[in-house]
Amino acid sequence: MNSAKFSYSHDSIYIWDRVVRLCHWGIVTAFTVNYFIAEPGRLVHEIMGYAAMGLLTLRIAWGIRRRNSKSENSDTDFHASFSTISLSKHTFKTHISHLKRKQLPANHGHNPFGWLMFMVVIALLFGLGITGFMMEEIDALFGNSLLEWTHSIMADVLYGCVIVHIAAVFIVQYVGNIQLVRPMLTGWRKR
To answer: How far is residue 45's CA from residue 176's CA, in Å, rounded to a whole number?
Structure first.
């Protein structure tokens, strides 16, 4: 990779690439439309559901693809890669220690709690996609009350996760003295 592509400034670090940001905000949009605006079973609801599944599939493929990528510039360590997932006891302790000192490393993407939430959200989105598909595309399951209930509960749990995620972003951003919102908008974080 051309490191000049990532040289926004010496005071900034490239954290989230365009694909990650596109997937994140696209899924946010699809979920928001489906949860708050579109009526279940309507065409808009289905389109948003398929869009979310497509974006989720892209994000997973991107994370797997990035696992095998080597960065030429340490500042462009690809945080999209699933190879950066670390959920060991040590990783959690280190993250909490950094929070207590109000000094989170600026060159990190997800912290271990963020990766856990990411995995829960992936599971819920896939569950929503599968149950939604089954209700709409398999005639024998159309109107199945158990399937509708399961779909609805998963959507509500995902909404709860969204609230926790948003709160955690702002709390960790404040307590950890680190930018979390800006990198998801621009890709860049100040050191």
So the answer is: 38
* Structural domains of the chain, with CATH: 9-190 (1.20.950.20)
Integer Cα distance of 52 and 59 in angstroms = 10
Distance of alpha carbon 18 from alpha carbon 31, whole angstroms: 20
pTM of the model: 0.86
Helix/strand/coil for 90: helix
pLDDT at position 66, please?
Answer: 66
Q: What is the pLDDT of residues 172-188, one digit of tens each?
A: 999 999 999 999 999 99
With vertex at residue 83, the alpha carbon angle to CA 107 and CA 106, rounded to the nearest 5 degrees, is: 10
CB-neighbour burial class of residue 70 (10 A; exposed 0-12, middle 13-18, buried 19+): exposed
Distance in angstroms (rounded) separating the CA atoms of residues 9 and 122: 33
